[in-house]
Design goal:
This protein is mainly beta. The chain is built from 1 helix and 9 strands, in the order ββββαβββββ.
Length: 141
């Protein structure tokens, strides 16, 4: 299985597929609701490994997520287009597209025992743009 994450905006980047290890899609519905509510949100949680750039390659795709997480809300660049593709045996099982995503939480964790860092990126779609989300799948990659 391959997980492909592309973040488009100022300084567009594709997170190396060797880095991304897990993707969770959630539809957020308030827990205190007794019926379907208009206050719905959508979240993507992306986790993986931070790999060291090798062969003289100075570019670290995971570093770009950390930089995006620090863009202030007043800057329109805090909203970006995010596409996540889950590919199994040459078939796109799922393709999530968030056209106005923003970072809710970003963490990096390093330890001295494994020699590899990990990251966790949580993004949400802007609430007034929920209709722009697409979920596709079932076609050749």
């Amino acid at each position: 299985m391959s997980l492909r994450v592309t973040i488009e905006g100022q300084g567009s980047v594709e997170i190396a597929k060797e880095c991304v290890k897990k993707v969770i899609y959630k539809t957020d519905i308030p827990l205190d609701s007794n019926a379907r509510t208009k206050d719905v949100g959508s979240t993507l949680e992306i986790t993986g490994k931070i790999l060291t750039a090798v062969d003289g390659d100075p570019f670290d795709s995971t570093r770009q997520m950390g930089l995006w997480s620090m863009v202030p809300a007043e800057d329109s660049n805090c909203y970006r287009k995010v596409t996540v593709e889950i590919i199994q045996a040459g078939i796109v099982e799922r393709k999530y597209y968030f056209p106005n995503a923003f970072v809710v939480n970003y963490n990096e964790d390093f330890g001295d025992s494994d020699g590899v860092g990990t990251f966790s990126l949580v993004i949400k779609q802007k609430k007034d743009k929920l209709a722009g989300i697409t979920i596709e799948g079932g076609y050749p990659a």
